[in-house]
């Protein structure tokens, strides 16, 4: 079958999990054309021959939080040129591909193409859980405005899909009107994680998304003799009890698999990998990003780690003192690789 696969380019989590799905489709002898924006284009282009670059929406950050107003302004200003460029890409390339089905990881342009030409479309992402499922008050308390705004955005993003496949470690109740069209599957994991053999080392892996954070190392240095391996600051160095690494996929997987715990924001990709490998997590979500706040709160609700509004030495020390409790809770997470994902995708394609 000829399949058009759209991937949103904001963040790399969409690209890494889409690669897992696309690899499976290719092995099943389907012909796949990928349309993708942002940094995800270069990543997927390295792995697949038929990849079309489009322009996508972006998120602006300021002072460690999502800048909602700046994000809206930036995307409104870019929209006319994006529409022109993406329309040209579809007319010149994608339409001649003649896809029979569209899959989309939160990509609006693949969805638009499906609607325009009357093709069935299947959504595969994690964001749809915000709108398609019910969330208890403890998940939205204190962030109700961000929840309503994000839910409205997700609702409007890709309506009317034939089916929604949602990847998530938590499984809230699906809203009644969507029960026949929603399937929640366990975390989608890349092959490197599935092959990793977890051990319990003596270091804590810290993934920092802001290269300008000058306070992080100082806070970690307060917790000697604990050892920290830090990614995200863009340099290689040893500073006190911290070993800093620029990014290397193989080394990162090795350090993650041997870590005793993980400190990160509320992004789902690393959270999923850490959960699968049995690593307790301290999650510090980016402010005003409800998706990250939701992930962190469910993480704490399941007992897999601690959600915190900020990270300092006292918070981190309290988290590490409870590390064994979180590790025991993680033993209850059961997952056979990506088997449920593959069965779900194959069933939908056969249908």
Main traits of this protein?
single chain, about 350 residues, alpha/beta, Rossmann fold, 2 domains, seven-stranded mixed sheet, 15 helices, globular
Topology of helices and strands:
Blueprint: E1 2-7, H1 13-27, E2 31-36, H2 39-45, E3 51-53, E4 61-62, E5 65-66, H3 68-97, E6 101-105, H4 108-116, E7 121-125, H5 129-132, H6 137-140, H7 144-157, E8 163-167, E9 182-185, H8 191-195, E10 203-207, H9 216-221, E11 227-231, E12 237-239, E13 242-245, H10 249-257, E14 261-264, H11 268-276, E15 281-283, H12 290-301, E16 305-307, H13 313-321, H14 323-330, H15 339-350
Parallel strand pairs: 1-2, 1-6, 2-3, 6-7, 7-8, 8-9, 10-11, 10-14, 11-13, 14-15, 15-16
Antiparallel strand pairs: 4-5, 12-13
Protein model, in words:
There is one protein chain. With 351 residues, the chain is α/β, with parallel strands linked by helices. The protein folds into 2 domains: 2-186 and 337-350, Rossmann fold, CATH 3.40.50; 192-330, Glycogen Phosphorylase B (Rossmann fold, 3-Layer(aba) Sandwich), CATH 3.40.50. The chain is built from 15 helices and 16 strands. The strands form 3 sheets. The protein has a 7-stranded parallel beta sheet, with helices on both faces. It is globular and about 60 Å long.
């Amino acid at each position: 079958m000829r399949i058009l696969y759209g991937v949103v380019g904001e963040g790399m989590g969409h690209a890494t999990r889409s690669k897992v799905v696309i690899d499976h489709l290719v092995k099943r002898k389907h012909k796949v054309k990928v349309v993708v924006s942002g940094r995800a284009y270069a990543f997927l282009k390295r792995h697949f021959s038929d990849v079309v670059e489009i322009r996508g929406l972006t998120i602006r950050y300021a002072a460690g939080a999502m800048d909602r107003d700046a994000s809206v302004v930036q995307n409104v200003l870019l929209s006319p040129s994006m529409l022109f460029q993406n329309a040209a890409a579809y007319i010149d390339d994608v339409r001649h591909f003649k896809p029979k089905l569209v899959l989309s990881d939160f990509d609006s342009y693949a969805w638009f193409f499906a609607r325009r030409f009357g093709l069935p479309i299947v959504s595969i992402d994690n964001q749809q859980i915000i709108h398609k499922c019910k969330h208890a008050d403890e998940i939205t308390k204190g962030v109700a405005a961000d929840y309503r705004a994000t839910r409205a955005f997700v609702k409007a993003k890709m309506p009317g899909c034939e089916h929604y496949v949602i990847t998530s470690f938590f499984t809230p109740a699906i809203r009644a009107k969507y029960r026949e069209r929603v399937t929640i599957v366990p975390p989608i994991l890349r092959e490197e994680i599935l092959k990793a053999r977890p051990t319990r080392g003596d270091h804590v892996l810290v993934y920092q998304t802001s290269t300008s954070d000058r306070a992080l190392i100082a806070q970690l240095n307060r917790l000697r003799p604990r050892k920290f391996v830090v990614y995200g600051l863009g340099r290689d160095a040893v500073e006190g009890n911290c070993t800093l690494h620029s990014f290397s996929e193989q080394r990162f997987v090795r350090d993650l698999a041997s870590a005793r715990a993980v400190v990160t924001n509320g992004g789902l990709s690393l959270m999923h990998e850490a959960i699968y490998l049995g690593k307790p997590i301290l999650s510090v979500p980016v402010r005003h990003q409800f998706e990250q706040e939701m992930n962190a709160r469910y993480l704490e609700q399941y007992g897999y780690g601690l959600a915190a509004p900020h990270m300092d030495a006292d918070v981190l020390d309290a988290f590490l003192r409870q590390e064994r409790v979180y590790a025991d809770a993680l033993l209850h997470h059961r997952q056979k690789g990506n088997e449920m994902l593959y069965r779900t995708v194959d069933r939908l394609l056969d249908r």
